[in-house]
Structures are given as C-alpha cells and as structure tokens.
Amino acid sequence: MIREGLLNTLLMLGLLAVPLIAQAMGEPFVITLATKVAILALAGVGLNVALGLGGMVSLGHAAFFGIGGYAMGILAAPVQAYEPLMTWPIEVPGTKSMPVIWAAAMAAGALAALAIGALSLRTAGVYFIMITLAFGQMLFYFAISWPAYGGEDGLSIYVRNGFPGLNTLDPIQFFALAFGLLALALLFAHLLARSRFGLALQGARQNPARVAALGIRPYTLRLTAFVISGAITALAGALFADLNRFVSPAMLSWQTSGEIMVFVILGGVGRLFGPVAGAALFILLEHWLGGVSDYWKLFLGLILLAIVLFARGGMIGALAGRQVAHD
Amino acid sequence: MSALLLIEQALNGLQYGVMLFVMAAGLTLVFGVMGLINLAHGSLYMVGAFACAAVAAATGSFWLGLAASLAAAAAAGALVELTVIRRLYARDHLDQVLATFALILVFSEGTRWLFGSFPLYLDIPAGLSGPVTLPGGLDYPLYRLVLIGIGLAIAGGLFWLIGHTRLGIRIRAGEADREMIAALGVDISRLYTAVFALGAALAGLAGALVGALQSVQVGMGEPVLILAFVVIVIGGIGSIKGAFVGALLVGMTDTLGRFLLPAAFGHIMDPSSATSVGAALASMLIYILMAGVLVVRPGGLYGRA
C-alpha cells in the first residue's frame, strides 16, 4: 500500500518523464501519446467535477468535448481559407491563437452546459443519465446534418494553432502546454473541492435534504458544478482537436462520453488524480492490446467489467487502498 | 405534397414507432422491476439481427431465422443476467452504466470477431416482399405493414401478460415491493432472470425484423438504444403504456419531421438551405420533444416521479 499523495506525485512525474525520455531518444510518437494522455485526463478532470464531487452521472460529456473541438475548428478554419469568421453584423476574423480559442471553447462549453444542465438537473438518477445522453446525441446528429462546418466529414486545419512564445509544432512544446493546463486544472479541482462551494456540493451529493435545510439550493450548486465541468471538458476538446488538427462529429459521439467516464472510473471515482491514472491506463491498453489483437476493445470491456464488479476503487483505490467518500 | 405521400409517411412513422416500442418495452420492464439501467440492451438487438441473418443465410428460411433471433437474444440475455447483471442490482447507477458499457464493448467486438466488419444482408421473405395497394390507391410495402401488425400484436400481448397473468402479477408486485413478494415465496432471482430474458428476446426480435429493412452490422444497436431511452424518458420509466405512447410519438415526430420540415422551410427560404436547415432541425426534433415533455412533466407522461 502506498500513500495516495505519493502515488499522485509518482503519476505526474511519470507522465512528465516519459515524453522527456522519448525526446532524448528521438521518439516523437511517444510524446504524442503522452500528450493524448494529458488531454484526455483533462477531460476526465472536467467530468470528475460533476461526477466525483457532485454525484451527477453525466453520459453526455462528449457534447462539451466536441463543442470545444468545434470551437477550435470554427475559429481556425476561416484563417487558412483567408476568409472572415463572420461578416454580419460586424466583420470578425478567425484566429489561430490558442489562448483565444481556449477562452472561446470554455465559454461555449459553459453555455452549453448551462442549457443542458438547467433542463437535465430537473431530474435525477437514471433520468439524468438518459437525458444527458440524449442531449449529447442531439448535438451529434446536429453536427452530422449541418453542412456549414463539414457535416459528417468534419473540419481539418493544416497547421496547429499558435501559442505566444512557443512553437506548438514541436511535440514536446505542445505536450508542455497540455501538461501545464492539466496541472492547473488539477490544482483548481483540488481548491474547488476544499472551498465552501465544493463542500456544499459534496454535501448536496450525500444528503440534499440537509443542504436544503441549511438554506442552500442543491439545484444551483449542481448547475454551477455542471457548468464548470462542461467548461473544463470543452477546453480538453479544443486541445484534442488541436492535437489531431481535425475535428469531426466522432468527438460528439456517445462512445466518447462513455470513454471519458471510463478514464474516471479506471482511475477511481472521487480521486483527484483518478482521471490521470485512468487515461494513462486506457492509452497504454489501447497500444499494448491494440498491438496484440484488432479486437482490443473486447479485452478492454472485460477488464472494465472486472474493475466495476470486483475492484470498485479503480487503479488508485487498488494501489492506495484507503476508501474515499463517494456514492 | 399529396395526401397519399403524407399517409405513406405516417405509416412509416407508425412502423418505426411500434418497432421502437418492442425495443423499449424490455428496457422499461427491466428498469421498472429491477431498477437497472441497461446500456447493453442495444447489443441484444444486434445479437437478434445477427442470429437471424446467419440462420436465414444457412437455411434459406427467414422464419427459422426469426425463431433463432428470439432464442439467441433470450439466451444471451439470460446468460448475461446470470453472470453479470445480477451482481449489479444492489449497486448504484454509475456502476450499472459502466458495467453495461463494458458489456457493449464485449458484445460488439465479439460479434466483429465472429462475423467480420462487413454488414450482413437479410432479405425480406419472398411472400412478404413487394407492395400492396391500400384502400385509396396507396401502394405500400407489405413487409412494413406486417411489422406494424407484429408490433401491435406484441403490445397487446404485453398488456395482457402484465395485466392478466400470474407472471404479470409477480412482475408488478416485484416493482412495488421486492422483499414482500420474496417473503411470499416467489423466487425473486428466477423472476428477474425471466424478465430480463423476456426483454432481451423482444430486443432481439426487433433487431431481426428491422434488420431486414436495413443492413445487419456491428454497432447497429446503439442508435436504437438511445432512441429507446428517449422513448422511455418521454413515457415515464417503468411504464409499458408510457413506452407505447412514447414510442409512437417519437416514431411519428421523427418520420414526419424529416418529411415536413424541409418542405415547410421551403416557403421562407431558398430550397437548398431549406433542405439543410430542415434536415438539421428534424434530426434534433425528438430531443426537443423530450426536453419539452420534461419541462412540463419531469417524470415523463406516465411516470410516477
């Protein structure tokens, strides 16, 4: 048994060390894999705010992930076509600047989460799961059938967007960006969980009636958490689209929602660093099992099944032992 | 647009709706009785379609294939219930979602392993192919009419089963109070397996019947599963009557929306953008319907919440 704090430190150091070693050995592909882990973990950190802290089982987080991706595509694609983003009522140019894209992605994700959350949080339990899933599908079908942004084919950008002072085309520098954002998000999630808001939110998960009796509306707490969660996941979506230089409706598909949830669970629900462990394990399995068999998802399914049935604390739970409060 | 075309589309909507009902009935029963959310229900739909296609290709008989689809889906359902699902009844919804998501991966990849990635084709039986002329001069495919008939018969059968048989009494009692009926001497785990297998068989049958209209391929179950979720959310989870009304509403809204919206937008904008705006809006219409129902009645039309 290892202490959880030590385990988390090892995890982050490992994620930092692997691309540095890969850089020294001239293996850019490994750096890209590590970047993917960092970005997917960021999406998981976003979901974990809703799922782990708030107890909201959202099966529609691909909506926010995809919205982030499309925010990148919609802002960056006009630049390479030498067209303005919009001409009416005022002419707005597109942008290739990552900070602007990130802000737009987070704002769009937050707005979508506000709309979806306001409706979905009227319900609870299994209704909430199904409704978030259905709203995710709604955006998925909209993206497929709306031709302006590529429809089923998606949007490609030729050159990765820029960040002031960095060369984002260099894999290790782009990794540093993704890793930095992941670390910031983890810090934010940590502070959030200990803030008055975070404590009230966890109270609302454990016993909504008591929180209501204390004069706090659980609905408002949950909606706020859902919006924060959507914004973080949208940021991850913008980075993911930038990593692939491509965004398509697949980012909005419900399998994506399921996979983001799998990262959280593989690592351990309610654990701050759970998504990092989960995303790393997922990508490792994808590459290790994917090399062994074309049907690697069959084995992923069996492993996931075993974890849910027999090892409920996920990876961090299995290694660090101590139970955390979640329900 | 002519009245005949509208009637044809309405019949398509009805056919779509009753098939959704057959799919959603099992889902809503399993949730109502066992309190379990089963994402793998779409996989059972796929199992039914593949069993039917494989047996029909081997024997040349669609009807044998249909029987095989019922048997295979019921067997797969019972097997899954005995090995996995049964451990999930006492768990929270999150564990249920994850475990059944894992089952989808296992089913989909297992099927791809067995049958390959290419779609299988399932032909409509010779006696049922081709159109019939309905009163009023409308030529309508006979097979789709038969689907409507089968769907309505299954709906009638289920209402009878739930309302008027001993099994139905037990199912309703299990929904109300599982400890009580266990104390009265009903073997609750056998009842659960039976309900799960019944739902699975219905899903498999729907897969086989619809598979003859579309192609039979891996991943065919998930879009239908999500529609079935929309259906039971609209109808109220656990209610067979709600599932029936919800399924018809969703089937009609989707089919008529895709048909009428592009035409309606054609009156106010040019044809090409009317087609794209109409199609985009039509694909979202059932979700808008669902959101609307939830705003008015958060527990669904016939729900208890």
From TrEMBL, chain A:
Membrane-spanning parts: 36-55, 62-80, 100-119, 126-149, 172-193, 219-240, 260-285, 297-320
Keywords, comma-separated and alphabetical: Cell membrane, Membrane, Transmembrane, Transmembrane helix
Location, primary (coarse class): membrane
Membrane topology category: Multi-pass membrane protein
Record localization: Cell membrane
Pfam families: BPD_transp_2
Highest rank taxon of the organism: Bacteria
Protein name, per record: Branched-chain amino acid transport system permease protein
TrEMBL record, chain B:
Membrane topology type: Multi-pass membrane protein
Record keyword Transmembrane helix present: yes
Cross-referenced InterPro entries: ABC_transp_permease, BCAA_transport_permease
Chief location category: membrane
Domain of life: Bacteria
Pfam assignment, any one: BPD_transp_2
Localization, UniProt: Cell membrane
UniProt keywords, alphabetically: Amino-acid transport, Cell membrane, Membrane, Transmembrane, Transmembrane helix, Transport
Signal peptide range in chain numbering: none
Residue ranges crossing the lipid bilayer per the database entry: 14-37, 44-64, 70-89, 101-122, 142-162, 191-213, 225-252, 273-296
Similarity annotation: Belongs to the binding-protein-dependent transport system permease family. LivHM subfamily.
Name this protein carries in UniProt: Branched-chain amino acid transport system permease protein
